[in-house]
């Protein structure tokens, strides 16, 4: 393993992205994914500066069990004229209990004078006081030197003096930040090399993508001696975003041969990038390097036969390295193998069922093309597989005749939803209605009420989460809606999926799968 | 003006992007935009290889009046064992009448042998014969050396021999192509420098973005002596796309001081990038450098007061250089300064309106606590601010009495949605219904139908995007749904927001804001 730090700031700087708004639970879920990926550090937010981040660190103490990563709290140097020990924001960093504290400091003379409105001397004192206080309290202290590259151009000596002040006071890393993102790789390389050779600091790099060079700038910094790289998943961040951490790590690991992540971890990159996009609800960018849906997609054409003979001639790396797929190949062994494995989990030995495996794989690929995503809906995939392996009738618990949901409101009153569901179950036709604070809630109530006479076991089921994603929203009209529903039976929960042009229809599909899976799981026979 | 070639291949290599499909008229319209931008060369397609491209060049003769750019036709070297004068695809290049012909040739030994299935010697003969024939016919000939960088790594001497063969036969440019996109800037720089110093060629560069470095690679090539840069608008292209030409040109012109485009042309960049996206129907990427909607959008509230004093401290270049704008995003991190700045954008001087600023800020914070996120819904924030600054009645275009939406389905049929809306507008009570492929679509149709008698201006509005987010249950209450809607009037679009327990109610709020904003924007009086 290389000792280069992989430092993720998705939860803090990434959250600055326009339109991105993460709840505390979102942040905890993302942190788990980051830890699974194997990053060294997870910057969780700015405790004390906003209540949500304070709560994140409080809940992390009990709820977030990290396997590999170290949690970092972000904060600023103490106020001008005060002292660190009495500064409430500095205290909040201690209270967060994060083992690493990353302090942002000004290193650009004009920013010190016109944004911070203090003297150059006091700014250095603020750095020294804050770093040494936190260090004295037993924290590992990293410094983010804000606007460093612009500051270096304005006053090289002062910018480097900030680096030295931090190191001398106990900082372990000084990350040089291209805060405005206007640098090009040669400038980054020159400045990093100077900082590495003229200070004793462990130098880090923090880039933004305003010139389209955030990845290259991060690479240039590492080549020039930086040993700490900051970035965000999917390049989230303010304006044009931060350096895309997965691209930087993939480049360093695959192209430069630096073993940054534990063996096998990079193979989770595509899945993790997409899982995090599900949480942020920012549509994944299909042209994203390495992990994008199109990253290894070849338009069928004149190269098709040559690709079949020797794929390496037409791809810059093996997509398996990052858990992605070349998309021209229809049947690949990996796909079949994972379906076989899933079957074994469910108690089916499919090792000799090659035809069935090919059929299931083709079905999955066709459905995913229409917008299904089975890695987020295990229960729906399990039903699909069981239906192929066993007789269809095994799962015909009920037949849907029709459903209808009405939502209405008068003036400024709250809207009400009411659903009617007509089914045949246990040999009886049942018409049931349900109300809810939304159309899906109402449908859920009506469906379970209709099934209650035949299947009283459904009484304990509860719809606990509902997520909606509009796919291909390019021109509104042909957009398809993907709905994920999580259902619980009190002791465990499962995810099901529906995809349709109509959001209510997609929700209905997911509801029906959720209820059906509940019956399968409980071992209830068809009545 | 620098004599560096700006060579656009949006219409040829860009069109290889997954899901992109351009008609001949689309291509002609894009070519006009490219010419207006001021690129030197427009690669129009491959005449002879597909009928659409043959037609493009035929129609370009009479319909495309280029002010500045030169049209280039793309093709390949003649077939192995034949001769150029008799090759129908080479003849098609002559017939296209394009003054520049760009020929793709193999320069990688393995590709010659296993994809082209000919000898290394014959491949060189194909280059010489094709280039000298076309040159003899009075065409300017450029050569695209395919897989050059991988080929150089496999057999440097042979790769360079291909460059020499082309130059000696009359080629004006040899563009070195990183066809698989796997290179990093330092590799590009080394190879380009070698090609420049050991051949007499005018060297060009053609990059793909598979390592996230297409822009930096193009810059590195220019720094190493390349004087011809290829790329595509919005970085369109196969897999991760080609180098984004506008980012490369902006970097070279703004950061390196190379005057590539005529004075004032770069100021059209944002408008032209978005106009071309309208034609390709690929949603613009908001985080795109220089021209993206978020490229100069600031969220962090702590910076706002400093930005007010000195915007240059917080942006890497003046957005006006590329025809973009600085935007302040209002979020829960916002302060009074950012609201004042936003007011200034809308034409209100609020510098002395401290009480109003405090009131607006309190309102924003209270709404964000309930789940609103105004940085993603500029138009809703603008309505909120305008309602505080002006009389409320200024925006009372209509009064909603009630609305209702029904979604139903029988058996396996597709669901249908139908909405009824009752409003008072222009002094009349109107009841209108609308259908749609989803409840929000149906409500949108019904609402605009109800308002049409009083406000015929709404006819041209279109709902173009719809996003849904379920927010965590806060303090034991029910989950809340946030809906963002994007509405377009054909030339511009705006985002509005709704938050409610019921997803349909949240959608309704966002729809009402979207329509109201459309009326405000068009300067329509209350009727």
Automatic annotation (TrEMBL), chains A, B:
Family matches, as SMART domains: LeuA_dimer
Highest taxon, organism lineage: Bacteria
SUPFAM superfamilies xref list: 2-isopropylmalate synthase LeuA, allosteric (dimerisation) domain, Aldolase
Keyword Transferase: yes
GO BP: isoleucine biosynthetic process; L-leucine biosynthetic process
Pathway it works in: Amino-acid biosynthesis; L-isoleucine biosynthesis; 2-oxobutanoate from pyruvate: step 1/3
Alphabetical list of Pfam families matching this protein: HCS_D2, HMGL-like, LeuA_dimer
Lineage: Bacteria, Bacillati, Actinomycetota, Actinomycetes, Micrococcales
Keywords: Amino-acid biosynthesis, Branched-chain amino acid biosynthesis, Isoleucine biosynthesis, Transferase
Location of the Pyruvate carboxyltransferase domain: 4-267
Name by which UniProt lists this protein: Citramalate synthase
Catalytic activity: pyruvate + acetyl-CoA + H2O = (3R)-citramalate + CoA + H(+)
């Amino acid at each position: 393993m290389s000792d280069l730090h992989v430092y993720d700031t998705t939860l803090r700087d990434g959250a600055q992205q326009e339109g991105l708004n993460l709840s505390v639970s979102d942040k905890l879920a993302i942190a788990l994914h980051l830890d699974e990926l194997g990053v060294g550090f997870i910057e969780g937010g700015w405790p004390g500066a906003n209540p949500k981040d304070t709560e994140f660190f409080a809940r992390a103490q009990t709820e977030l069990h990290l396997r590999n990563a170290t949690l970092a709290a972000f904060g600023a140097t103490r106020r001008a004229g005060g002292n660190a020990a009495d500064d409430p924001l500095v205290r909040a960093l201690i209270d967060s209990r994060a083992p690493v504290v990353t302090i942002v400091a000004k290193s650009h003379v004009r920013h010190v004078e016109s944004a911070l409105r203090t003297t150059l001397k006091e700014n250095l004192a603020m750095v020294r006081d804050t770093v040494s206080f936190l260090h004295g309290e037993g924290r590992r202290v990293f410094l983010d030197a804000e606007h460093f590259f612009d500051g270096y151009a304005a006053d090289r000596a002062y910018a480097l003096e900030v680096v030295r002040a931090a190191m001398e006071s106990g900082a372990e890393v000084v990350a040089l930040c291209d805060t405005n993102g206007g640098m090009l790789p040669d400038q980054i390389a020159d400045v990093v090399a100077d900082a590495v050779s003229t200070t004793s600091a462990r130098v880090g790099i923090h880039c933004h993508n305003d010139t389209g060079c955030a990845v290259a700038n991060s690479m240039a910094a590492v080549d020039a001696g930086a040993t700490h790289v900051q970035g965000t998943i999917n390049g989230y961040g303010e304006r044009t975003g931060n350096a895309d951490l997965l691209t930087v790590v993939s480049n360093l690991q695959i192209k430069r041969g630096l073993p940054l992540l534990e063996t096998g971890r990079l193979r989770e990159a595509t899945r993790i990038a997409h899982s995090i996009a599900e949480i942020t609800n920012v549509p994944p960018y299909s042209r994203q390097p390495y992990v994008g849906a199109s990253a290894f997609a070849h338009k069928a054409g004149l190269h098709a036969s040559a690709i079949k003979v020797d794929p390496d001639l037409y791809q810059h790396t093996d997509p398996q390295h990052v858990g992605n797929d070349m998309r021209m190949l229809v049947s690949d062994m990996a796909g079949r193998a994972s379906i076989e494995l899933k079957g074994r989990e469910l108690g089916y030995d499919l090792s000799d069922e090659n035809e069935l495996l090919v059929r299931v794989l083709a079905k999955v690929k066709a459905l995913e093309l229409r917008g299904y995503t089975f890695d987020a809906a295990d229960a729906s995939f399990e039903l699909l597989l069981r239906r192929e392996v066993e007789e269809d009738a095994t799962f015909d618990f009920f037949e849907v005749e029709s459903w209808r949901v009405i939502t209405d409101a008068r003036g400024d009153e709250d809207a009400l939803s009411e659903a009617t569901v007509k089914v045949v179950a246990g040999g009886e036709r049942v018409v049931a209605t349900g109300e809810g604070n939304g159309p899906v809630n109402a449908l859920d109530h009506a469906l379970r009420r209709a099934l209650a006479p035949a299947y009283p076991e459904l009484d304990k089921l509860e719809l606990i989460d509902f997520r909606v994603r509009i796919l291909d929203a390019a021109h509104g009209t042909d957009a398809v809606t993907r709905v994920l529903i999580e259902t619980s039976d009190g002791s465990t929960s499962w995810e099901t999926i529906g995809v349709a042009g109509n959001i209510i229809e997609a929700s209905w599909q997911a509801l029906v799968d959720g209820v059906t899976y509940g019956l399968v799981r409980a071992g209830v026979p068809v009545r």
